[in-house]
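[SOLVED] Need 3D model of a two-part complex

Original post:
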Amino acid sequence: MPDFKTEIRRLIAELNLSPEHEAEIVEELSQHLEEQFEKAASEGASEEKAKQLALEELIQPCSLSAQLKRVKMPSRLPSLAVGANKTSQRFAGFWDDIRFGIRMLRKQPGFAVVAILTLGIGIGASTAMLSLVQDVLLRPLPYAHSNRLYAIWASSESTGQSQVAASGPEFVDYLEQNRSFAHIAEYLPLFTFTWTGDGEPKLVNCTAASEQFFTMLGIRPYLGRLYEPHEYTYLENDTLVVSYRFWKNQLGGDPHVIGRVVHFEGQNQTIVGVLPPMSDLFPNTDVWPKLTIRPSWPYMQWRVNKFLRLVGELRPGVTTAMTEEDLTAILRRVPEEPRDVRVHLVPLKDDLVGSVRMPLYATLGAAALILMVAGINVAALLLARMVKRESEIAIRLSLGAGLPRIAQQLVTESMLLSAIGCTVGLLIAWSVLRLLARVPNLPLPRMDSVHLNGPALLVTIAIATAMTVVFGWISSVGFSRLNLFSALRPRGLGITGRRGLSLALLVIGEIACAVVLTVSVCLLVHSFWRVIHVDPGFQPQSLLRVYLRTNYYGENGRAFWKGVLTEAASLPGVRHVALSDWRPGRDAATATFVFEDRPNDPTRLRSGEGSWVSDDFFRTVGTSLIAGRFFTQHDDDKAPPVVIINDEAARRFWPGQNPIGKRVGVNYTGPGRRSEAAPRLREIVGVVGNIRHDSLDAPPAPAVYLPYLQDETNHDMATMSLFLRAVGNVMALADSVRDRIHAVEPNQPVQNVQSVADMVSQSIATRRYTLILVGVFAAVGLLLAAVGVYGVISYATSQRSREFGIRMALGATRGQLVSHVLRSSAALTAFGSMVGIVGSLLLTQSFSSLLFEVSPLDLFSFTTAVMLLAFVSVGASLLPACRAARVDPIVAMRSE
Amino acid sequence: MTIPLTDRELKKGSAELLILSLLKDRPRHGYEIGQLIELRSRGALRFNVASLYPLLYRLETRGWIRGRWVEKSGQRRRRYYRLTPAGKKILAAQRDGWREFVEAVGRITGIEYA
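Solution:
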């Protein structure tokens, strides 16, 4: 090839261009001429001829320099190539780095898949949990002045009650005397109405609220109107406001629903309004009846009936402490209140979602630990991989790449990794949230509004950015002091020095996190095991419960209840039937006691749980008799009044004595009581085992059981549960039970027919789901830790194969080599476990409220966790250890 | 017969139009531009290096085209020229002007242009 460059340079020399400029023109034009030359040559011209033809291009028809002189040369764009000019090519280099990064990932698909999945799982778990926490716990209530809305509760240390609701007169006192609230309202959630006349008789869920409730929350009707002030001045419900959910699901979303008459509680009621969707406020509510203060139902006028929930909106500038003082002073003016009674305020949002706060934060903590383990895992993998890339980096450095350029490449690669990891993580988070939304009966409020949300995404992006920086930094650890000689020479004996130490520290950190996770889950498992092995005091298996909300009050219902009992008892396979107002898994009604054998301070009456029961109740639910006798058919309204107490009441009120034959007056409080007559003294005829009325993990309280036919307070007893003990599958009885009840009363809604075993299990649902979630996270954490340990140990052993070869050549046995490798992994595990135990000691205290009869320092859980981790960790290093020991000494020593 | 394009013709603007038209669809390097002019005119028109590159540089100075070195793996780097938005406008305007000129010549000489 002739040299055209010299010729071109000669021709344009007179133009006095800048050297760079000249070089570019020379390069561009000479390329052209060379191609011209090649073309001519390929068409058969001799070399001399071809050269001449090409050179003529430069001077014909006029000379190049003359032409060029007339052109003001354009400013030049930087070239789109790597390595030509360092400062102006960030962007081009960036895309090259990305391409190179993708190539590197594709070259090592194992590493790529493990790293991306690990990151994805960590980011996914924590983003999902952050979204949950944000939407369930943190998101403000969507109501006017939501930061000034507080629930009002009373407490008293002397009676041991920490959260007492209010009575009607109490509310009126607060309403008239308080100086702190702009608005104050009372409400009553979770009761039912019967709905008849529109097909199958049904039950609707109600939340009743007093006059200021909707105004205070700033809720406007979706259709129609709310209640008008004058409607709060009479007791009957002839107008109704229904929820959006009820309108949509039960009334078919009829836009002309206003004015429609429905038959609730055996009365005609007109729908006047539909509320907007309210997922934060008792989302299961179908109907919002009004709650009137003046006039009010008799049972709302008794101070002992504390069942109303209060909510108030503070005046601007008023503090909660001032308000608590204000209300406490008002409450203490009531002579019947305990002397040490105190009012405390709880932000309304916390009041509504507070029960899931600890479980959610615990799960979020577990997810954060997963993220940490995942991050550490990827960092360790990167660090181990970097050692393999030392020679590549060294060559780059020696070819003139600056350290910043190398760092840019490594950071770009780690950014690529965390970006892909983030994407996978977001997909995982999205799927987890979708999955959670489909779990039936998930005991999580506001669940329908949970979605992958902004703050969670922001945190994820922040985490990804932090990881990018950390990973990039970790990758470049040691390169600043790298020189060509040390990097290219055959490798030494294993991981040593700064990078080796970093690797070891990472594995220790990872094991520590896994230990914390495992300890936590062991504590939860141990608690759960304790809970499900709690003696519930009855036999939930083969027990069916039918919830019956009737329109019968007091004695009017006697015939109905008797008929139901007779009909149900005649069903094939049914052994025992009974009635009670107790709802399994729900706390029972409160009763206060007046003892005949001691003075009773009216301000400090002892209290406990109370239930109305029919005579065969204890045999039906399977509770054992400890002393005395069960009720019989003869304990009716004509017989002397009797009561059965539970073991806890016997121990607490008559320690060391026989309570049989003692007499006690029982004031059965709660809604539905219709006279304030002083309680009669009842003779204790029996002591039974402690039934866990509430959930299994609530401690047993003193309880009394009264024959439902011996009711001096004329309690309305419109709602009772029918219990059936049968052989075989009780749910198979559901239809025939419904038929028998309809035979007694065709308009009776029979909706909630449940197996009591299911109800008991639902009562610990929060605990179960917390355990499942944290358990899954801990399992993932363990798996990731195992992968990390495996990765690091197998990397370290592969680096030391030469050393192992020498050892074997010198007479070391395979067993000795295996134990040598295992020892180093055991040392890492031991260090990690120690750090993890210290971390657990600090952290597990914070979730002691999730534990049940298990100390946060539970030795069993700690031992199990550490042993499990040691097992996993040593197991993970067994494979690389065996691989190292199987190596042929000759091959090993020749390698590298 | 091959007509070497001279400075005068360049001044008339027809050569500019040729180059802008060739760059309309995609970026091309100088040699490719020269080859395409020769090929598409079936050898009737041809640029010499001494004319082509100064013209390219001039068009670049006017901001109608932009040249940039591009490196492709396995090849030496080449300077590719692409049309700028300003160049696209000029091309559209020149095309209209050229069509009018050709039609006018046709009417006068009686030669039919397809």
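Edit: The beta strands of chain B are 3-4, 28-29, 45-46, 65-70, 78-83.
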